[in-house]
Amino acid sequence: MLRRNASHLPLGLGFLTLLMLCGGCSHVQSESEALQKSLEVNGGTKENVVKFAGTVTVDNQPPAVDRRNPLFVFAYDPKNPPKGRQVPFSTRCDKNGRFTFNTYGTGDGLPAGSYVVLFAQPKTEGGDGLKNLYNDPDKNAKEERFQINLTSPGKSDWTFDLAVAGKDPVTTPGEHAVMAERGRKKGG
Question: What's the CATH number where 160 sits?
Answer without folding.
Answer: 2.60.40
